[in-house]
Amino acid sequence: MIRKTYVEIDGQILEENILNIKKKYPDYKYYIGVVKNNAYHHGIKCVHDLIRGGVNYLAVSSLEEALKIRHYEQKIPILCLEPIEIEYIYDAINENITITVDNLDYLKSLLNLKINYDLKIHLALDTGMHRLGFTTKEDLSIAYSLLKERPHFCLEGIYSHFATSGVMDSYYDLQVKKFLELTKDINLSEIPIVHMGRSLSLVQHEKLSFCNGIRLGIVMYGFNQSMAIDNSLKGKIRAFKRRQIQKKLSCSKTILTNDLHVKPAMRFYTSIISKRRVIPNDYVGYGAKYKIKEEGYIYTLAVGYADGVNKDFKTVVIEKEFCPIIADCMDMILVYSKKEYELGCKVEIFGEEKNIKEVLKTTNQNAYHLFNQISNRVIRVHKNKNDEEQITY
Ligand SMILES: Cc1ncc(COP(=O)(O)O)c(C=O)c1O
Fold this sequence. Notes:
By secondary structure, this protein is α/β, with parallel strands linked by helices. The protein is built from twelve helices and 19 strands. The chain folds into two domains: 11-248, Alanine racemase (TIM Barrel), CATH 3.20.20.10; 266-354, Beta Barrel (Lyase, Ornithine Decarboxylase, Chain A, domain 1). The chain is globular, with a radius of gyration of 24 Å. The protein binds pyridoxal-5'-phosphate (PLP).
């Protein structure tokens, strides 16, 4: 590694996260690990950790992503969540990639193909997200019948996606209702995999009896989004108020407690590439916007907003000291300290000393955005019990 700016991924933590999820929620048959965009930017090697932990299906966005993963992992079934163009269907068949069918016209074009090997299909239903999926039970019934007639077109799954948490809204219940309405005329129990939920639904709601699969995304990477309420007096009042709102909205009860243990597996580091002494009234950075108040040092770090780090991160950690970021540039950020540190010193952007949640607070974003904004030029160092590997994209 030449530029010492890297994200470290702890594969052991990912594996333990899955083990803990499965221990707490053991009633699913299919734990579908969502590994879009290089496993939420954790790096493709993570699929091995997730599988070791017990994920037994993967889901990605595109065929390109699926093929990349197939190169790493030959056996695990992989579902492509976006419909893929008909001309690439043979690639999906050759590499055992499961496809999503989300409307009747697409299915009809698909059925025009002559195929001699099995193509696994999951039907997507639009229950309220209005992004992808069948919208009427008539179209769905036709699709179901058409698929039954054709060998090699294997209807393996059916799914939908929740738009809301369902904690203080009735939209979750409406989506469940819509799923059951749409599937009224087909025999759900004949379809091997039925999946609706994502991380938030897992931690916040009881298992849906007709689902045997769950799609796990952010929770696998260490974020438990549960809006849990503790047993304190304050907690009890909050729980009461929540129930009142839920009653008013006629939405189903949600799970109040949460003792699922998952930990973020990602840590982000850079290093000091330059330093200078500054005195009061010196100006720093573009626009000469920052004026030094006290004598000290400006440290230039090899990370900038092109890597996904900007002034909103507020601080970085150098040898346990939280140093303020006072200017950001495309490739470098400038931090201040009264203390002197060596050139080349390791700097933590988030990880052990600075919890990733602190970054989410000051950048005012969620973990999905944060992970995905760390650019591809930042090397991923994937660690496990026995090995360490650098991955570049
Ligand atoms: C269809 C689908 N399922 C599951 C997920 C995973 O969601 P989460 O990370 O909230 O678990 C996503 C995430 O983008 C998705 O698009």
